[in-house]
Design a protein that fits this description.
Porin; 2 domains; two-stranded antiparallel sheet
Length: 290
């Protein structure tokens, strides 16, 4: 019954999104992004609410033991290194990916990355878990750069005449699998825990004058060491990818890129992102305390 209610609420929000004046009439890609984003949020919140209810003290006294197995909750924070590889920016004169014009290769400086994550390894499957995270990174775009090729009349020779930056805010949901080594009485799953994960995400890329939001896919791999049964240190490599980011009316240092008689142009490019992080986590058995 509860699962049916979740499905009905999701369908209702999808219908609302399709009819809402705030969402209707936008670029088709933006319609899909808004509807998809709301659907993901409803599903995530519904799952989290139901899971918290089933693990509440009132439900546990009806047959849910406090310690069902070697699974646990964890809350973690991390800092690290953000690397954006060179990217080819395609220029669409009419704002459509079907009419791509010249292109320019753009380079970025390494930046900083920080984030938080909250997750759960399940008692019945202690090697498997789910985590949600939010993160923020900043990379400077040095200038002048971005030579536009081929050169066309009326088109600036460079995209960027001075430096700029990209600020990337991401939200991710990952499915995680781990393995335990160095088992002992205090940490019965193992103090040394290599792990891998993959999942969908939602990322917003901010520039000085414009921003773009898009779905992303993330993969990660890392290793965790349990200092105690409650505190761990971890190192992790994360890779995310966004397809066909679009910037409309992009201005870099007051320079508008236009082609011919077109009132504005759009930059379109894929967005790979490499991150190397170091973090600390706190692990606990019962979400509601003892």
């Amino acid at each position: 019954m509860r699962q049916g209610l979740v499905i009905l609420v999701t369908i209702g929000l999808l219908a609302l999104g399709a009819k809402s004046p705030a969402l209707a009439g936008l670029h088709p890609k933006l319609d899909l992004q808004n509807i998809g984003g709301w659907s993901m949020a409803v599903e995530a919140l519904s799952f989290a609410g139901y899971y918290m209810y089933k693990n509440s003290p009132a439900q546990r006294v009806r047959g849910y033991a406090e310690n069902l197995g070697p699974g646990e909750w964890y809350l973690a924070g991390y800092l690290g290194y953000s690397y954006l590889p060179p990217m080819d920016w395609k220029i669409a004169p009419n704002g459509t990916i079907n009419e791509l014009g010249p292109s320019a290769k753009m380079f970025y400086r390494p930046g900083v990355q920080g984030g938080l994550k909250f997750g759960r390894y399940f008692d019945c499957l202690p090697w498997f878990g789910v985590e949600g995270e939010t993160n923020l990174s900043r990379n400077v775009i040095p200038g002048p750069q971005g030579k536009v090729l081929p050169v066309l009349p009326g088109l600036p020779s460079r995209v960027l005449s001075g430096k700029d930056y990209f600020l990337v805010w991401g939200m991710q949901t990952n499915l995680v699998a781990r393995y335990g080594f160095l088992k002992d009485k205090e940490v019965n799953f193992g103090r040394l825990q290599p792990y891998v994960g993959i999942g969908p995400g939602w990322e917003v890329v901010y520039g000085t004058f414009d921003s773009s939001k898009n779905f992303a896919i993330e993969a990660m791999g890392g290793i965790r060491y349990m200092l105690t049964d409650k505190v761990s240190l971890f190192v992790e490599y994360k890779y995310s990818y966004q397809f066909n980011i679009e910037y409309q009316d992009v201005h870099f240092n007051q320079t508008t890129v236009k082609i011919g008689n077109s009132p504005n142009s759009t930059f379109i490019f894929n967005f790979p992102h490499h991150r190397f992080i170091l973090g600390i986590a706190y692990h606990f058995k019962n979400l509601y305390g003892n």
